[in-house]
Each structure stands twice: as structure tokens, then as C-alpha cells.
């Protein structure tokens, strides 16, 4: 394979990919991201994180100021701390899905990512999803009066694989079910809402073709984006499915794999 052409846009996942395992952006990575921005190549963060988890990275977003959050359900102006686009579930469908999953999975607990912020069931508790002290707690079916971009669910009494299989068999093809690395956590977005779809829309609005995009990821929820981009990279610590499909493999997130790949552009 020859050396891919210089990208017009770099799209990268955050946790497990651009960020180290402790959640920090290394000085080496920060430097190469800043250099790319200065030379006219925007670096777009494309993440499962909700907008509120992006504020700490506001200084690294660059001139474009935008991040894609919630696995593609939300465009967020990080510097202004303002949601600029939000794609939510159809309310009747979401109500039905929540009802059917409660019946199929005893003890299931839900959380919602809404335009105004998060909300969780009263019994929702897990180290894999940080619920802040100010997070509202009430039955999620009573809180569907505004757009919901992502439905999250878990059941502590089931193994990860068994839980995801049960969720998938219940929701079928009515929603998009993704896995971003948190064990035991099912993440659902409206059908058609993926990192790839959101990235393609952003690129189309900026006159950028898929062939001009480099994309980096580590988990199955990154696969649609990696398949769409003209050039794709998995970090060495990626999920086996991602390692198998990515066009190239770079070093791990803790060894500045994204930065190492981007430094070849200097």
C-alpha cells in the first residue's frame, strides 16, 4: 500500500484512541493537533461522550470549534459550550423501546442524554458511566418531553455479551445499537445516527470528500466512521474487530499512536 495523500480533515475518537488511558491529552498529541490546525487541517473529535465531557478539551478543538458527540447525535460548539445540532429519537418509538426492554430484562436501568443534559433511573448506578451529583433521577419514561439523542442501559446481573444480545434481540433494527468500550453498557441512538453519518454531514457542509479524511478509532462504534473515511487507522489497543478492518494500525493510545501517524505529515 502506498502512502495515503495528505488529509483535508482528521477525525478521531477520544477515549482509548486520542486520549491516554488516564483520560489526558499528552503534550506530544496536543502539539501535533495544534500544528495541523495551524497548517489548515482541522482535527474533528468524534466521540460517544456527551457534550459536558468535552469542555475540558476546549483549548484543543482548534478554530472550527466543533465536536461530534453522543455517537453522532449531537454537534457541539465546545468553545461556546453550545449545542448547534441535535438529532433525537421519535418519542413514541423511544417509549415503546423502553417499555419492551423493561419487560425483557428485569432490573434494567436506563439513562437519557437529552439536549438539556443527562437523566437516569433512580436505581441507575455503575462505575462505567459517571453520574454526577447533580444528575436528575427519575423514571426515564416520565422524562421524554424533550429530544433524546442517546439511550443508555445496563443490567448488573447479566454478563456483557448476554446483556447486549438480549437488548439487540428486543430492539431489532428500530434503533442503532453501539458498543464504545464500557462493559455491560448498551448505547442506543436513533436509526441512522452514527459517527459516520454525522462526520459525512459535517464534511459535505465543508466541501470535503470521504477520500480526503483520515479517521482513527479503537472500538466497534468507530467502525462505521473508519469504513467511510478514505484512510483509516486503529490504535494498537483497539478491539479485535477494529484491528481487523482498519486500513492501518498505529501505536497504542498510551504510546501516542494518533500523534505518531499524524507526524508523518510533517
From TrEMBL:
<dbReference type="InterPro" id="IPR036412">
    <property type="entry name" value="HAD-like_sf"/>
</dbReference>
<dbReference type="GO" id="GO:0000287">
    <property type="term" value="F:magnesium ion binding"/>
</dbReference>
<dbReference type="InterPro" id="IPR006379">
    <property type="entry name" value="HAD-SF_hydro_IIB"/>
</dbReference>
<dbReference type="Pfam" id="PF08282">
    <property type="entry name" value="Hydrolase_3"/>
</dbReference>
<dbReference type="GO" id="GO:0016791">
    <property type="term" value="F:phosphatase activity"/>
</dbReference>
<dbReference type="InterPro" id="IPR023214">
    <property type="entry name" value="HAD_sf"/>
</dbReference>
<protein>
    <recommendedName>
        <fullName>Cof subfamily protein (Haloacid dehalogenase superfamily)/HAD superfamily hydrolase (TIGR01484 family)</fullName>
    </recommendedName>
</protein>
<dbReference type="GO" id="GO:0005829">
    <property type="term" value="C:cytosol"/>
</dbReference>
